[in-house]
What we know:
212 residues, three-stranded antiparallel β-sheet, 10 helices, mainly alpha, Fumarate Reductase Cytochrome B subunit
Amino acid sequence: MIERKHGTVGRYTPGARVNHWLNAIILILLALSGMSLFHPALFFLSDLFGGGTWTRILHPWLGLALLVTFAGLFLRFWRYNLWERGDSLWMQHIGDVVTQREENLPEVGRYNAGQKILFWGMTILILVLAASGIVMWDTRFGQYFTIEQKRVAAVVHATAAVLTIGLWIIHVYAAIWVKGTVRAMTQGSVTGGWAWKHHRKWLREEVAKEPR
């Protein structure tokens, strides 16, 4: 809702912000532990987790924690990330997005097309990581899969991990690049000017919710 006294618009609840930051922290820990197991040159990263043995023990449990925390985010936000006609038009003006000529873009709802692609990309990749990780989790499920299946799962898991880290980097860069965005996940609100410039359709919807 609009907070006219302070000129801000509420964007994320405290629960959503805690969920987001927990998921982000777990993703970073997973990336570090996974890289330490991926290549001998990166094995030094296992020192962050108490050594190689503890890294191997903790990594799959961190993966489970990532799945649970992301499920919380998915349930909160999936409906806002459904593709709409305006999203295709937004993508056609991707050049204006990059050069920040937002006056040429269609009005955007709660999330733009780029954010929606990232959301669904992360959803698919985390499911792939979970499925391939289960195949590779020898101490729990090793007896259910063949050596060949585990080899395929290892390649799929590593590929999905690289793509996930790439999407995460894009997400962080975009949040910093669009000034005022980080505030939404730290304070829970954005300025009215930010909402008008970047998510005008969403702002109109929030104004319409105000009691008359």
